[in-house]
Amino acid sequence: MHWYIILSLGALVICLSFCLYHFFRLLRYGTPTDFSHRLGNISAGIKYSFTGAMSPSKKESAYLHLPTYSAGILYHVGTFMAIIIFILRLTGLRFPVVLSYILAFILIITAISGTGILIKRISIRKLRELSCPDDYISNILVTLLQFITALLLTGHVYQSVYYVTAALLLLYIPVGKLRHLVYFFAARYQLGYFYGWRGSWPPSKKY
Amino acid sequence: MMVNDNKERALSILSRGDGKLKAHLNSCVRCGLCAESCIFYLSTGEERYIPARKVDLVSSVYRRYNTLPGKLVPGLVKARELDEETVMEMVDLLYGSCTMCGRCTAHCSVGVDISYLVRIGRAMLAEMEMVPSTLQSTVDAAIKTGNNMGIPVDDLIDTLEWLEEDLQDDVGDPSAAIPVNKSNVSILYTLNPREPKFFPLSISAMAKIFYAAGESWTLSTKMYDVTNYAYYSGNLNEAREIARRLRDAMFDLNARTCVLAECGHGSRSFRWEGPNYLQSSYSFETITSVELISRYLKEGRIRLDKSLNKERFTLHDPCNLVRSGGIFEEQRLILENAVSDFVEMNPYGYDNYCCGGGGGQLAMSEYGDRRLKAGELKVKQIKNTGAVTVVTPCHNCVDQLMQLNQVYKMNVKIKTLAEVVADALIL
Questions:
Q1: Is the ipTM of this complex over 0.85?
Q2: B344 chain-A contacts, CB cut-off 8 A
Q3: A131 touches chain B (CB under 8 A)
Q4: What CA–CA distance (Å, rounded) separates B353 from B318?
Q5: Is the pLDDT of residue B1 over 60?
Q6: Pairwise CB contact (< 8 Å): A35 & B276
C-alpha cells in the first residue's frame, strides 16, 4: 500500500474517531430536560426544523440571499460527494468512464460554488471582519478536495496529491468550524425540540 | 475590575455537560446571513450588531478554554481570553444591542439558538457582577419589595379600591369586585407593576372581562408581579427567587390556574423558564391572559360587539409570547371578534420584528438612543398598515411603542388586548 493511502487512512480514522466521540458525547448528554408543561408537538417541531424551516420559502437567511443559499447547498452536496468518493476509492471501487465524467462535472460546479463563497467572504467587509483564519482554511481545503476529486476522476492529477489533500481535510475537520459536520444536526434537533415543545414550530397555518 | 473567582464561575457555565449548549456553541459557521434578521443591524447598518458577532463573543471564549485548538493556537480559530476587553464588549453587545427576540435564531442558516447563547453570555456577565446597574436596580427592587417598581402594598390596595368603584359604575353592579387575597379561587391573576403605577385602566379592562365571564379570581398583594427582570440580567438565583415567590402565591391562595398578565417576557419567564429555574413542574395550570380571553370567546362566556371598535387596528406580536411562546392564533381570534377593521403588519406573527423594547432594554436607560433607533423598523411597519390603533398584549411593548409614537410622531393609539376586548364587551 502506498504511503499516501496509509496517510489518508490514518487521517480518516482520526477524523471518524473525533466525530464519533463528539456524537456519542452529545448522545450521552441526552434529550433536553424541560420542566415546563409542553404546549406543542416535539416530533413535529424537530421534523419541521430539518424540513420546512430550512426551505427558502420560510428561512429569511435563504430567501434574502438566494445565490449564496444555492451556492451553499451545491457546495455541501459536493462536499459529501467528495467524501463518499474518497471512501469508495479506499475500498478499491472505480467508476465507469461516463459516470466519472458526470461526477467530475458536478464537482467542478460545486467547487466553483465554494470558490464563490470564499470570494464573497474576502470581498465583503462585514464578512471579512467576522472571519478568522479557520474560515478561509476550511473553505480552501473543502473546495480543493472537490476540484482535485474532479481532476482525479478524469485522470488529470497524481494519486498522491489527491490522497494528501483528502488527508489534510480530514485532519482539519476536528480543528475548526468544520466540526459543524456533527454539530449542525444536533443544533437543528435542539432548535426543533425547543420550538416544538412551545408550539411555535411547525407554525400555525391559520391566519 | 474582574475578580478571578467570578471569572472562574463565569467560565464554568461554558464547560457544563449540556447537549444544547455544546450543540449551539459549536455550530456557527460565521456566514453572516443572520445580519438581516436583526433590528439593530437593519436600523443602523453597523456590522458589530450582526448576531453572529454576538454568538462569536461567547463561543470564542468557549473555544479558548474548552477546545484543544483554542488552547494551542487561539489565533487560528479566533479563541478569546475572558479579559477586560472581551467583558466590556460582551456588556455592550449582549446587553446593549440585543433584545433576545429570537428572530435571528428562527432564521439562522444552521440553526444556532442565538438568543439562547446571548442569555448564556449574560449569565456569565451576571456571575462577574457586570450587569448594567440600571437593569440590576430593577431586579433589586423586585427582590426587595416584591415588585419591580417598588410599589408599596397600601398604594396598590388604594388603586385597586378606586378601580373597583369605577368598575361597579361602569357595569352598573355594586357587587362587581376586584378581589384581593381570596383563597380557593379558579384564577390567580398577575399584573405588570406598570399597570397599577401608570396604566390602571388595563386592570379595569381585565376586571371587566372577568366580571363578564363570571370568573372566580383574585389578585395577591403578596406577589402579583408577572415580570422577572432577572431573566434578562442572567442572574439565575434571582430569577429562581422571583419565580418561586409567584409559585408560592399560587400555593398560599390555593388557586387552580395562574393567569399571566399581558407581558411577553413575564409570561415566558414564569411559564417556560420558571419550572426550569425551580427544577420542578408546576402542579397548577399556567396560561396567558390572551389564551384565557380566547378560551372565554370559544366557550361563549363573553360576547363581543366588533362594531364598537370601528377604526383600523393592527397587532404587534410580542416576541416572547409568539416566537418563543407559541401563542399566535389566540390574539387573532380575539381581534377577529373585537374589531371591525384589522390589518396585519408585514412581516407578522413568528416573523414579526421586535419593537426594540425587549431584552431589558427599557430598563437600561444608557442604551436608550440605540433602542429608539432599533424601533424604526417597527415604526415603518405600523405606518404601512395605516392603522389608527396598535394593539399589543405586552406592557413592555406598550411602553416602547408609546415612546416610538412620540419620537417618530406616528399619531396612533396604543392599547393592550384586554382594553380592546373590554371596549367591545356585551354585558
A1: yes
A2: 207
A3: yes
A4: 9
A5: no
A6: yes
Quote the minimal CA–CA distance from A126 to chain B in Å. Answer: 6
Do A132 and B274 lie within an 8 Å CB cutoff?
no
Average pLDDT over residues B87-93: 97
For residue A30, the SS3 value is coil
Helices (H), B128-259: 133-145, 153-171, 194-197, 200-213, 230-233, 236-253
Helix then strand then coil, % of chain B, to nearest 5:
55, 5, 35
CB B53 within 8 A of CB B32: no
Residue B109 clears pLDDT 80, i.e. is over it? yes
The model's pTM is 0.96
Q: How many CB contacts within 8 angstroms connect chain A with chain B?
A: 175
Report strand pairing: B285-288 vs B312-315.
Answer: unpaired
Does any CB of chain B come closer than 8 Å to the CB of residue A57?
no
Q: Please tell me the distance in Å from B161's CA to the nearest CA on chain A.
A: 35
> Crossing angle, helix B289-299 and helix B417-424, to 10 degrees?
30
User: Average pLDDT, whole number, for chain B?
Assistant: 97
Yes or no: say if B255 and B186 are a contact pair by the CB < 8 Å rule: yes
CB contact at 8 A, B114 and B120: no
Backbone dihedral angles phi then psi of residue B371, each to the nearest 5 degrees: -60, -45
Is A60 in contact with B351 (Cβ distance < 8 A)? yes
Asked if B110's CB is within 8 angstroms of A188's CB, the reply is yes
Confidence of residue B422 (pLDDT cuts 50, 70, 90): very high
pLDDT over 80 (residue B11): yes
Contact state of A187 with B276 under an 8 Å Cβ cutoff: no
Mean pLDDT estimate for chain A: 96
Model pLDDT for residues A150-185, shown as the tens digit of each residue: 999 999 999 999 999 999 999 999 999 999 999 999
Q: Are A36 and B273 within 8 A, CB to CB?
A: yes
**Using one digit for the tens of pLDDT, what is the confidence trace for B204-231?**
999 999 999 999 999 999 999 999 999 9
Burial annotation B201-221 (CB, 10 A radius, 16+ → b, else e): bbbbbbbbbbbbbebebbbbe
Among chain B residues, the shortest Cα distance to A68 is held by B33
How far apart CA B233 and CA B212 sit, in angstroms, is 39
**Nearest alpha carbon to residue B287 among B247, B254, B327:** B327
